[in-house]
Structure prediction request, 322 residues.
Amino acid sequence: MIMNCDKELNTIKHGLSWKKTLAPINDEITSEQLQNDKQKAVQERLKKSYDEVTALSTTKRKAKRQKENEKKKEYIYDNVNDVLKIAKTQKEFVELLRERQIIIRRNAKEKEFNWLTKSGKYKSRLPFEYQGYKITSKKLINQNPEQILRKLYQNKLKFENKQRQIAKSQTNKAPEIKLNDEQVIKPREIKPQTQIKTPKSPKTANQQIKKQKETKNVSKNKFEKFEERNTNIVRVRKSNISSLTDLELMVAINKRDIWRNKHFHEANWQNNATYLRLQNKVTFLRSQLTAEINAQQQAQQTMIATKRAEQQNKKREEELET
Prediction:
């Protein structure tokens, strides 16, 4: 502690240097109170660090800080982009950043950062912090929390598609492996000696023509059954729809439910303007999704019809050639 006065309780003159006059006096007073060698070593280390800082001018200090902040900014930028490629959910995104010592800042009242405001809308930015350096997602990546969540949802869909493809490939390989195992384990069966068959009488021309016609009719019936089966199987899942419309619908339903949970005790809450606006948005997005599903179904039906026509034309040409 330093009192800014002399023995006669007059204030010390302005412009008095700390390093030249007051610092040595302070060191003499504190050195008398120090007891251990460890305490003295700490004081000497603090002196060296203070001398190094005071030796630099203000412009050099600013330049040094700017360099450090630029390095921290590059570190945050690289790691956030890497995590955006890997993470599939909001929780995973936060945990991966925390492992890399990057924190999403929150208010003192919040346990975790809340991505939504009280009105149910997404916040305009995510505040990142690394070793005291603070920057928002808007300045760093030019993305808001809603855009980041869309990216995570797309990563989730890609991961699910890959898992399905791997499962299909494994199921296709499984029967081949079983056949090979059976061939190795099972002994070779000895076939009984076949009896000498009598030669059949040669068929007449009329019998051969009848057999050809029967085979053609059987092939036609098989083809028609195959086409009917394809037309019955035309079903479109939600996973084939574009992820953006599906995500927008989920967000709209979430906003509507938040508003309803807050205001359901009020009278005539169903006729409120904000509730009607949210409900209309949900119905519009649902109709848009159904329209996309119908469009995909029509496209598949047209593809089946074109294939059917091509196969019929090929058969006609073969019949004419024969």
